[in-house]
Give the backbone structure.
Amino acid sequence: MSTELDLPLSGWPIFYKNGLPYIYEDTSLFYQKNGERIVEPPSHSSLALYLLDLLTFLYQKQVCSIKLNLLLQAKILADENAAVEERRFLHIAITPDLVFIKRVQANDSTSYTLDNYNPPPNVVLEIASPHTYTEDIGRKWQVYAEAIQAHEYYVYDPHEKRLWEGPRLKAWWLTEGHYIESGCDERGWVWSEELESWLVENGANLWLYDYKGNRHLTPTEQEIFKAEQVLAQQEEFKAEQERFKAEVEKFRAEQARFKAEVEKFRAEQASVQQ
């Protein structure tokens, strides 16, 4: 018996929304069965906001769009061999945690429809949750590859109680319309061509490094780093002052001992002369 992952997207079950035929829509993943919105753990939102802050800073001089929870919309042919007048489209709607699109001007829109004017995302990132991770590493990668055609797709597990065995970061690169899982180097680092950075897992955090191995910092982290440097310099100066003070005290003690020796010698000389 075939599963959806054994089939092309056009073979997935069809459902209708607003009168349109859909084969994938991930809104239901964000709600419980009783209709209540699922609240993500702090590690999820803090990582998403951190990466948004970092990438926005790194690419501030380039034309690009970097967004959280951007609704991506696409459509595929139900039958690629159908005549033009008989073509029917199947719709897809998916909302990744973070999206990075080059050469697209940033705007306030909450949705993005792929077409001849709107290119595929360069990077899509999902931050895995207990209620979504099977979908993130399951059906979603096929949707991102075949319909969205995101050049790079990443899924990260920031949870202390791990959701899967092995590296926290899973990575796929688009090759000839399909994803090939990306490996890591001997350090466990994964290179991103699109971000021109190493992706490095660090517990609940996902850090980025340049090709030389220097960690990219957000503006806030840079300010903290500078403040720590100033504090370290102040502490070093204070320690140097203490060392100098100790040397002075040592020198004075030596002088006192030398003076005492001189006085003793003079007293002995005076005693001998008497």
In short: Helices lie at 42-58, 133-136, 139-148, 219-273.
